[in-house]
Amino acid sequence: MAITSDVLVVGGGLAGITAALSTAREGADVRLVSHKQSTLQQASGLVDALGYVPPTDTGSDPGETPTAGRTGVRDRPDPEGPLADPFGAIDRLPVDHPYRLVGADALREGLELFDETVAGYRGAHTDRNALVPTFGGTVKPTARYPAATAAGLASDDRPMLVVGFRSLTEFDARQVAERLSAAGVPFPVTGAEVAFPAAFRDDAKITRFARALDLDEPVDGTPARRALADAVAPHLDAADGGAARVGFPAFLGDDAAPAVRAELADRLGVNVFEIPTGPPSLPGLRLADRLYEALDAAGVRYETGVPVVGRELADGGGDATGGHVDTLLVDRKGTRVPYAADAVVLATGGLVGKGIDSDRDGVYEPVLGCHVPHPAERYEWYVDDAFGDQPYARFGVRADERLRPLDADGEVQFPNVRVAGATLGGADVAREKSASGVSLATGLVAGREAAAEAAR
Fold first, then answer.
1. How far apart are CA 389 and CA 381, in angstroms?
2. Whole-prediction pTM
3. Domains plus CATH for the chain?
4. Three-class DSSP category at 154
């Protein structure tokens, strides 16, 4: 007996969750399945729309894939940016970019859905990007950012102290400060390291620090929050210009994070903010929690740890093209369980998330077998310049304006399937700083389209 729903969403990242919420808002019965835990826990928690425009040919044929010889380095300038207005640059993106498929209004509506769904974020009052310092010492343009980072914006000219910890070697506060200064931020910035808490092992993880601050655990007899404030206080006056705000790696509590920041700010007499860090990312984990709570509130059923291992077409066909996808076969503890739906949203991620994969024979989409355009010659998948314009970064499923996957001839491959997020081709989201926005915009449209398909 198949498990049934109107719409089946495959993928538990931001695109899949957005598609599920969008579908549910249309009144459809929706179920979400995901192979792994959400990749949001590896993300910064920032929600980017579009920070840079790569220097690509906006007039190229959407079926073309840019190529370069193995040793070739593209003679193109750096991407344009950081952009103040992400919406104003969408028309300058390549014609097969996901934003060009769904339009700027879809990005606006996707961000609005995010604003209505996730509390504790800033940026909804303006179309302009904010500039947020990162743990690498860069300044990142982003459309939405946690309230925990608000006091650290680069548009604020107050002096800044960045605090690091001797046991967290992956976060070098002095290096962050030096790089921010070199980037030309309009304020003095100083880095300092403290030994907090000395009672912790040198290999203690960020989550251990966060839990101690959440619970205000005693550290050598002193409550953790007071102990941290006492360790930082001597560095305030010594900071260049005298610090008016203090940035910490993003571990200032989890469940009690607002209370932790408020107490530290009160004890130090300055604004306190978090700097997004690499995985495990507490801002990413916090965001994932809020989004899955939203799925519960919307009545969306979801399962994780259940990979899709096959599919059946409505006409009984088994080839890679044509026909409605009638059933997906999901591996549940070694048993292939059929999940039937009137429409499917494919949001399994890109090359990083293995929603797009490759081998010596080519690049492919492993769940449904959707066509992925790419050069036949493997040497044309990349250029030797690690920071150059890499063709593979834009590999993905090609879709029409309704986000239906297209085959090699440009015909709709599976009429009742919609594709969203990084599974779509045409965007170099890492270079553009557009990953979250692409997920929100295409997830929103894919969810609506899937609900309409299911209602036919």
1. 11
2. 0.91
3. 132-284 (3.40.50.1860)
4. coil
Q: Which residues pair with 207 in a beta bridge?
A: none
Give the span between the Cα atoms of 81 and 52, in whole angstroms.
5
pLDDT at 315: 67
> What does each C-alpha distance from 70 to 65, 98, 336, 359, 381 come to in angstroms?
15, 27, 42, 18, 8
Sign of the alpha-carbon torsion through 43, 49, 52, 56: positive
The angle, 0 to 180 degrees and rounded to 10, between the axes of the packed helices 435-455 and 14-25 is: 40
CA distance 317 to 326: 10
Amino acid at 439: S
123 in Cβ contact with 93 (< 8 Å) = no
Q: Identify whether the C-beta of residue 431 lies closer than 8 Å to the C-beta of residue 54.
A: yes
What's the token pair of residue 270? 């300055």
> What is the amino acid identity at position 293?
E
Rounded to an integer, what distance in angstroms lies between the CA atom of residue 227 and that of residue 220? 9
- Hey, what are 307's tokens? 């990979």
Q: Are 383 and 68 in contact (CB under 8 A)?
A: yes
pLDDT digits (tens, 9 = 90+) for 397-420: 999 999 999 999 999 999 999 999
Dihedrals phi, psi of 194, to nearest 5 degrees: -125, 155
d(CA 407, CA 179): 46
> Hey, what's the torsion of the CAs at 294, 400, 436, 134, to 10 degrees?
170
